[in-house]
Amino acid sequence: MVGGWTRTVTAVAAVLVLAGCANTVAGSARPGAAPAAPVLDPCALLTPEQATFLELQPQGRLTPGKEDRRLPPSCRFSPGEDSDDPSGVDIVASLSMSLATFHAGAAPIEELQLGGLTWRRYPNAFGDGFCNYAVVLSEQSFVEVTTTNFGDKSKACDLAKRAVPFVAAHLPGGAPAPPMPRKPAEPVSPLASMEPCDLITADQMGPLEVQPQGQKTGTGRGNIDGDPGCEWPSLSPDRQPLYVALALDRSADQVAQGEKADEQVQVNGRGWGLHRTPQDSKMNCAAVLAFGEKSAVMVTGGHRREPGKVCDQVLKALPVITAKLPPA
């Protein structure tokens, strides 16, 4: 098979041996026994810091090689949690197989200089969604970096080209690793310092027909995971609880799950999007306020028996809540 996706493993092994870092197993050799093969760690070709910079998981997953099947040791760096690229990076390394053997004699289709070394790209039987760049270390050793992109095949090599200079820095003759400028910190939402349960005080509960003590919700705060919020149980069996959530890293559109508001309600100079039947629920009402581009406030309530009153409670709560919000 040309290019073998399943064989795409990191040449870290080759690097470690050439650098004198191979591990050996202690013990006395038996007469006539073949020398033990060095134990290699392909995952050492990217440091945790480099992997994180490439938006990968900081630690790679090692797969031992099967050289008799042309499967050198490999390391899989999966995409990081915040990565927009679902590819990840696979690195292959061999100390006992030529690159020509690995690619079954196929000719390279591209050659380029990256990280002070010459890298060659080979065709892959699975198509242009796969991209690999390999460097020869000796007649019987090589390293190969592989990435994929099936959504846009023209970008299949983008991540590989970013990763290769970092891998090259760990190889003999490779240039120093490129700098890793820190990404600017994401601005913190002004909502981050607010406690949702403080947005309505006990003396303001009367018209809202809810219990005076709100219950904290949100991941690490209560029984309901998600954005930090507060829920006030209703005093009436016909009314839904009143609920407020502060989305610190989600836009108003994301909070509304892409639904368009039925109308805009102006409260104290701020425009809330009112959803009279969110997610087609006739017993619930929601209001969403955009708070910058990446945060929002949501208020929900409802009425179980009278659809005409489904938004009454929410509309009464909006002036109280809006008055407590900081400037966007």
From TrEMBL:
Residue span of region Disordered? 57-86, 210-235
From which source organism is this entry? Amycolatopsis suaedae
Annotated keywords: Signal
The residue range of the signal peptide is: 1-26
Point out the coiled-coil segments of this chain. none
* Family annotation (InterPro entries): DUF3558
Per its record, how is this protein called by name?
A: DUF3558 domain-containing protein
Which PROSITE patterns does UniProt cross-reference here? PROKAR_LIPOPROTEIN
Question: Do you know which Pfam families this protein is assigned to?
Answer: DUF3558
> Record's superkingdom?
Bacteria
